[in-house]
Amino acid sequence: MSDPDRHFDDLRALFINATLKPSPEQSHTQGLIDISRKVMEQQGVRVDEIRAVDHDLAPGVYPDMTEHGAASDEWPVLYSRVMDADILVLAGPIWLGDNSSVMKQVIERLYSCSGLLNDQGQYAYYGRVGGCLITGNEDGAKHCAMNVLYSLQHLGYSIPPQADAAWVGEAGPGPSYLDPGSGGPENDFTNRNTTFMTWNLLHLARLLKDAGGFPAYGNQRSQWDAGCRFDFPNPDYR
Fold it and tell me: Core-most of 99, 103, 114, 141, by most CB within 10 Å?
């Protein structure tokens, strides 16, 4: 079933999996990504995926850390894939009630480019849409989602309603999402929220693309630096 009033085949989406497991190890987070991805692909969206732990991402908050002492850094290449996408979904597991170290590193590297500007003088991520998926066998899904979604909007991403979905098992040690008998892939609550999240991302991305991006007035760093104050009421600014 597709939305008869809208088309999405000119949109691109990127999922970044912040699992701690390198390929080809099974990632439970990947199982949840696959549900959202399939919904998008049925609408003709071109989908890309990155498993962050498979790449050499230097710690740091500059776009290319080899310019600041790192021996190597694959982030500049991955950043180009981020900028190709209208939709970014960060997905990862819960550890000790919080996001994985890999998720935190991905957000740091996204932040490293947040000061770059687009053609309209806005911050580079303006006009793009963000969401998140969380998996785990312990509590903390809402805490993790709040952190990810706050980070994305702070960097310039637009966040639609209900932009997160999660699956967690019973509190304490237990099966993970794809483990036999976990009930994860069959969980109606998770499946509903994952589907709603995906469609909300698609709808907002469609609106922004049709509008030519996020409106560029009152938020252009280049204009602010040039002296424009967009009706800021401080009389000391002339």
Answer: 103
The answer to whether residues 152 and 128 touch, using CB atoms and an 8 Å cutoff, is no
The DSSP symbol for 68 reads G
Give pLDDT tens digits for 194-233.
Answer: 999 999 999 999 999 999 999 999 999 999 999 998 998 8
Q: Give the residue among 192, 194, 97 at the shortest CA–CA distance from 136.
A: 97
Closest CA to 136 of 185, 90, 171: 171
Give the pair of three-digit tokens for residue 187: 């969980």
* Residue (of 59, 38, 50) closest to 77 by Cα position: 50
Which of 226, 235, 219, 67 lies closest to 153, judged by CA?
219
- Collapsed DSSP state (helix, strand, coil) of residue 235: coil
Task: Find the DSSP H helices in the chain.
Answer: 28-42, 75-83, 101-112, 141-155, 188-210, 221-225
Record the tokens describing residue 37, joined without a space: 């991805």
CB 19 within 8 A of CB 135: no
Per-residue confidence (pLDDT) for residue 220, from 0 to 100: 96
How far is Cα 193 from Cα 36, in angstroms, rounded to an integer?
10
Q: Answer for the pair 194, 165: CB distance below 8 angstroms, yes or no.
A: yes
Write out pLDDT tens, residues 111-151: 999 999 999 999 999 999 999 999 998 889 999 999 999 99
pTM of the model: 0.94
